Each structure stands twice: as C-alpha cells, then as structure tokens.
Amino acid sequence: MRGGLTRRVLVASGLLAMIIGTGFAVLLSSVSDLDDLQRRARQSEEVLVAANRLQRIIIDAETGQRGFLLTGLTGYLQPWDAARAAFPAGAASLRSLVAGNAEQEARALRIERAGVSYLRDYSVPLVTAARRDRTSVDAAAATREGKRRVDVIRAEFDRLLAVQRTLAAERQRRSDDADGRAAAAAVVGLGGSIVLVALFAAHLARTIAHPVRRVAAMAGRLADGDLGARVQERHGVGEIAALQRGFNTMATALEENRRELAASRARIVAAADRERRRIERDLHDGIQQRLVSLVLELHAVEAVAPPGTPELRAQLADVAQGLTEAVDELRELSRGIHPAILSEGGLGPALKALARRSPVPVELDVDVPSRPPERVEVAAYFVVSEALANAVKHARASAVWVTALVRDGRLLVSVRDDGVGGATAGQGSGLIGLKDRVHTLNGALDVTSPPGRGTTLEADLPTADR
Predict the structure, then answer these.
(1) Is 105 within 8 Å of 99 (Cβ atoms)?
(2) Do 345-462 and 5-208 fall under one CATH topology?
(3) Which fold has domain 345-462?
(4) Domain ranges within the chain, ordered by starting residue
(5) Are strands 410-417 and 456-462 parallel, antiparallel or unpaired?
(6) Residue 382: φ, ψ to 5°
(7) In tens digits, what is the pLDDT along the chain, a chain of 466 residues?
(8) Left, alpha or beta for 378 (phi > 0: left; psi -120 to 50: alpha)?
(9) For the whole model, what pTM was predicted?
C-alpha cells in the first residue's frame, strides 16, 4: 500500500489543520478578549446592583428610625432591624466586587465606615433612648440629623455609582469592538474552513465513504445470513482495496465454515438418532423381553405353588407386579429415547400416542398425507414431545392444541397451551437441543410466550430430503 490512503489523508489533514488552526487562533484570541471584557462588564453590573441594594438598606434604616421617632409605633422598627442585620453582608459584598480598583475600593470602605458609624454610633443609641422615654428625644432634630448623615452617605454612593457607570460604558464599548473583531475573524475563518472542508470531504467521500458504504451494505447482507455476498474489488486506494479483499476472504471463509458446521451438525444429529434407535431396539429385544419372560415364569411358579402357602403366593405376586411396573417404566423410557411407533407407523400415530399419554388434554389436528423424511419426522415428534412436557412441568396448562400440516413442501408444526407463559428458546437444554435439531434441517423454530397468555411453539421444517 505504498503511497496509499493513509499518506494522502495525513497530508491533506495536516494542511487543513494548519490553515484552519491559523484562522481559529485569531478567532480564539478575539473570543478570549471578548470573554474578559464581558466578565468585567458583568462585574460592573453586579457592582451597580450591590451599591443600589446597600443604599436601599441605609435608606430603609433611616426611614424606619424616623417613623418610630415621629409616631412611637414599634412596627417601623421592623425594617430598621432588618436593615441593621443586612448592612454588614451588603457592605462586604460591595467591597469584594470592587476589589482591584483602588479608587472604588476606597469609596466602598468609606461607605462601609460611614454606614457602621451611622447605625452603631447614632441610630442605635437614639432608638434605644426613644424606647425608654420618647420625651427625652427631640424627634424633629433627630430626623434632621439622621437625614443629614444619610445624605452624606448617599453622596458617596452617587460618586461610586457615577464612576462605575463610566467604567461599565467604557467596557461595553471595548466589548463591542472585540465582538466586531471576533465576528470578522469568525466569518473569514468559517468561510475558508467551509471551502477547505468541502474539498476534503469530497475527496474522502470518493476515496473512502463510497467504497466503505458498499462494504457496509455487503456486511449487512452477510449479517442477515447471505453468505454469498461479495464486494466488487475495484481499483480502490491503498487500505480500501485491502478492506475489499479482506471482506471477500472473510465471506468466503464464513460460507465454507457454515457448510462445514451444517454438515457436522447433521452428522451429529443423524448419529444421535441412530444411537437412539439402537438403544431402543436393544432395550426392546433384550432386557425388556427378558423381564417379560421373568414375569411369565413367576406367574407359572405362582400357579404351581403348593396349597397352604399363601405367604409364598403373595411374595411371588408382589415380585411379578414389581417386574410388570419395571417393564412399563422401561417401555416409557424406550419411547422417550426413540419411539418404535414413530418408525413403524409414522408421525400421525406417534403424535396420537403422545396425546393419549399426556396428563393435560390435547386437541390434535394432523394433516400429513405422506411420510416426510425420517429425520424430519423425528424432529417434528420431539418438538411436540418437548412442548407437551413443558406444558405439564412448567406452564401449568389446562389444555394443549397440536397441529401438524404440510403446506408448500414444508411441514408446519404448532403446539399451543393456555399456561402461564414466559418461556424463551434460550431457557432449558430441551428447547436449545430442539433449536439445534431444527436448524440442522434448514428449518426454523419460534417460541411465543407472553407472560400470562400461554406459550406457542412453532416449527417450520422442509419435507424435501436434503
């Protein structure tokens, strides 16, 4: 891949980054200045708000004091008390906001000292004396003196606010200038960037996006099961050509692996079925027949037992009964391994036998005119057998409906119950084994089991022997 896609992308990206970086460095510098100016402008606004609030506190204190002195009503002392309590924090906040400007710091300090002096040295003693004896206080003179002191403080406030408004106006002007520079830099940088990005994007779309999109489309088909999907190996650039070749190699390997896996699974299922049939025959022709013979011999011995030996006869009868039950259990086990009735009579009789043995009532509908291939019959039988077993063990069903129909060359098997639901194909080794068996035949197995609404197990099996 000498001189391939990576080198081209790196060169183009480097040039683009250098050009865009230069433009945006100017923009960032302007934006940084603008942010600093805006921060200072916000600080000026906060100073104005804090100063007006503190001035309002002083006025409220003077108003409350004057109202109390003139009327004697203690209700006027509520705003006076609130103002005294709020003044220290308000003054500290104002000093904090003007920190860094020596002239404004000095004014804020003078305002704080004047306010503290007014409240502590004048207002509080005056109100305290008036509370003890109103006649001892000249309300008119006190009101004039309080107004004079407050006017001195307000004059200091006016000077601080005037300076702060001047600073705010200057900062706003500089902020507007920086805003204009930033906007111009943004327009120039954005315009150049758009042109460069458009050219770069067109190059990437032609050399990367379109080929990768074709590979992605083929990958989607591959993920959906179409292992025959291939990418046309056009003359791609560098890594793209390698990607196309790698995808086709992977798809070919996957297709071959699937063929080998399907063949292996088919061999395993066929071998398991052959072994099931052998075990069933061995049980039927061997131990089962031997047990039946022993039962008959015990009955013969019981028949010729000497009269007057009831205990012996009872023991022989018990042994014979136990052997009979063992024979029945052995037959049931043989049917579970590989039912003889399936091999001898076909799917219809085998399903009827399953329905008769089921503890849950089963409604059966079988329409299979001719016998499908043996392994398809076996798969269908075990689908119904496993579904009925689950309906009894787990679903707590009161009824089961079984259908087996041949339509358009496919055997469709459905088992539906009215149980508790909640089953999935991934739960339990039985359903997993059924799924593997059905997929080996290129069939499909689907489980629908909403909680509280029963379970439906559906198998779709091809009847053509492949």
Answers:
(1) yes
(2) no
(3) Heat Shock Protein 90 (3.30.565)
(4) 5-208, 345-462
(5) antiparallel
(6) -70, -25
(7) 445 666 766 776 777 777 777 766 766 776 676 667 677 778 778 888 888 998 899 898 889 888 888 888 888 889 888 988 998 998 899 888 888 888 888 988 888 888 888 888 888 888 888 888 877 788 888 888 888 888 888 898 898 888 888 887 887 787 777 677 667 766 776 777 787 777 767 766 676 666 777 778 778 877 776 777 777 766 556 667 777 777 778 878 877 776 665 555 556 555 555 555 556 555 555 666 667 677 777 777 767 777 777 787 777 777 777 777 666 655 655 555 556 777 788 888 889 988 998 899 999 999 998 888 888 988 898 899 889 988 888 888 899 999 999 998 899 999 999 999 887 765 555 677 788 888 888 899 999 989 988 999 999 999 875 4
(8) alpha
(9) 0.42
Per-position DSSP letters for 341-389, written without gaps between them: HHHHH-HHHHHHHHHHH-SS-EEEEEE-SS---HHHHHHHHHHHHHHHH
Q: Is 105 exposed, middle or buried (0-12, 13-18, 19+ CB in 10 A)?
A: middle
Separation between Cα atoms, residue 248 and residue 228, nearest integer Å: 9
**Residue position matching structure tokens 């190996």:** 233
Alpha-carbon span 291 to 298, nearest angstrom:
11
Q: Which fold has domain 5-208?
A: Four Helix Bundle (Hemerythrin (Met), subunit A) (1.20.120)
Q: What does the block give as tokens for 376?
A: 């398809």
Dist CA 383 CA 342 (whole Å): 13
Beta bridge partners of 402: 364, 415
